Amino acid sequence: MAVSLVDGDAVADVIESHSSTPGALLPILHEVQDALGYIPRDAAVRIADALNLSRAEVHGVITFYHYFRSEPPARHVVQVCRAEACQSVGADALISHVRERLGCAKQAHSADGRFSVEPVYCLGLCASGPALTIDEHLHARMTQEKFERLASRLEEQS
Amino acid sequence: MKEVTVYVPKDSAALAVGADEVAAALQVQCATRGLPLNVVRNGSRGLLWLEPLVEVATPGGRVAYGPVTPDDVPGLLDAGFLEGAPHALRQGAVESIPYLASQERLTFARMGVNDPLSISDYEALDGFAGLRRAATLDASAIIEEVTNSGLRGRGGAAFPTGIKWKTVRLAEGPQKYVVCNADEGDSGTFSDRMTMEGDPFVLIEGMAITALAVGATEGYIYVRSEYPHAIASMNEAIARAEAAGFLGDNVAGSGEAFRLSVRKAAGAYVCGEETAMLESIEGKRGIVRSKPPLPALQGLFGQPTAINNVITFASVPIILSRGAQFYRDYGVGRSRGTLPLQLAGNIKYGGLIEKAFGVTLRQLIYEYGGGTRSGRPVKAVQVGGPLGAYVPESQWDVPLDYEAYAAMGAAVGHGGIVVHDDTADLSKLARYAMEYCAIESCGKCTPCRIGSTRGVEVIDRITAGGGAVSSQSEQVELLRSLCDTMLNGSLCALGAMIPYPVLSALNHYPEDFRIVEPAHPPVAS
Ligand SMILES: Cc1cc2nc3c(=O)[nH]c(=O)nc-3n(C[C@H](O)[C@H](O)[C@H](O)COP(=O)(O)O)c2cc1C
Ligand code: SF4
Ligand code: FES
Questions:
Q1: Does A69 map to a domain?
Q2: CA B231 to CA B228: how far, in whole Å?
Q3: What CATH number corresponds to the domain at position A89?
Q4: CB–CB of B383/B405 below 8 Å?
Q5: How many structural domains comprise chain A?
Q6: Atom in ligand 1 nearest the alpha carbon of residue B313
Q7: How many Å lie between the centroid of ligand 1 and the Cα of residue B214?
Q8: Together in a domain, B16 and B49
Q9: What was the ipTM of the complex prediction?
Q10: Cys bridge to B328: A42, B6, B150, B401, which one at CB 3.0-4.6 A?
Q11: Can you give the residue range of the structural domain that contains B293?
């Protein structure tokens, strides 16, 4: 996917603002992803050139970290914690339910591209599990009934 | 009518159960009723089953109500909760709630009391007293104080903090760094998060004292990306501390400079390992470095670096302000001071419990936790995160202390306690541990990278059963020898400690692996 002119400027601005940051690669990747939702291939190439790194190095960093995306995310991203503390209060059943409910049972994205469901390993809400995030908003002590209300609200939004 | 101050926590654990909505409902309801209201967004007291825990300042002290939903607000106001009146959700004077009153809160002394970002509130509760004293001492005196306190690293490895600092102090280098490990990836832990959100200045103060002690002028706080509220809180607190002269060119009048910035991690558990974290801050993949060299000698950008966990740093101010002896009077054996324990998982009253070392799991699970949330019997308790052992009931009376836990093949780690009820299948949890190791391995050593995937397969073969007894016992032997290889052949604790949960599950809960006893005991060879 090509970076539009506007996005290209945004990437250049981010790179420029970190010209004196030591070890600037992660901060730059974060800001690009914050602005664009993911790190397009063109942006990665420009970052590599600006930081004097090989394209392979930048690609290696992007793929090493679970947080960085090389593809645009779905309109709504639901991340369900599946670490031990949440497992002890039903996270496995919850994640299956969430996937089913949002049409993501067989693939990460729903067919209409509106939703994606991803596992996450601990949100620091381990005494109040099961926990999940919807578009980065935290929700704890989740139940299928509570999720139903949140899901209907999401569907109304888009 | 006089304005009433009401506290509504803004800790993530409160936000996740609707604290913002409760605060908004209070504002709206009070406005329509013409009741003057001052809402303070405090940190959490750590009584997490009661969140959102709303407190009202009354002439007789702060009275708590919880867990409050937005729908409860009109009823609470009708009942007169602004005067501390009775209501079904009333929990009484907050500081007399036994869960809180019986704790030994040193590191968490200020947690949940005030607006976490108010420097004047922080100073009113002894904040910056430790740094002010440190600014008048020479570096070796600061290090001596910390050494004498007996403080050991709270991130997992329990290394004596004073000794580490001394190494950095004595190392040669044009630039030294202080780095805070706030990657807190262990399931069942949230004390770092609570500190950064609920008392960020204590971390800044601890790091500034460290900087004076080791001679560092630059510092980083590496915070996991799953903690956006902690990142925002730390950034704001750093700006305020700098404006007030506790960071910057002249730290608390010491004449020394120290600048601090936040680095956002990117979702790799292994970056909690200190050298992988350094690689990450330098802008690389989080691959673990071989030691030596020690990071204390050649750490960030090759320079001497003091790395500690959030709670380690946050324990330093009180050691400096009250003295080493005050701190070391808490605890048992070689585990001195207090540990903020985190009671999580299937537990009725989950939360943050700061106690002196020596408390037992049984006390924590039953006296504090009230047993499981499901009401079923407790079956297994994992202590110390995903690399920690499953501790069976026979060991719940062992006093919590680094040496006692090590002696029974377990680890205190970062103090996370995850409770499972009798529906838990320990073979599934062991399989998960191996699977998690495979997902999170940095890939540098074969036993960890490949062994973890093999481990999943072997556990699957064991639990599938069906085959001959002899082939099942062969698979069990294979799993043990695999764990042995990982234990001995891994560079860092991810590969080397994943055998802890796996073997403890296998040893203490063999029935969950559907182990078929041989009809005749195997003949010893
Ligand atoms: C896989 C792995 C993950 C770790 N994660 C953390 C972490 O999230 N936070 C932390 O403070 N220490 C973590 N550690 C321990 C650090 O390597 C290091 O011992 C610690 O940050 C030192 O600080 P302390 O002496 O104050 O404990 C981890 C270690 C390993 C092997
Ligand atoms: S044990 Fe695993 S995580 Fe640790 S260095 Fe080796 S491969 Fe990397
Ligand atoms: S284990 Fe799910 S939030 Fe920590």
A1: no
A2: 5
A3: 3.40.30.10
A4: yes
A5: 2
A6: 26
A7: 20
A8: yes
A9: 0.96
A10: B150
A11: 119-328
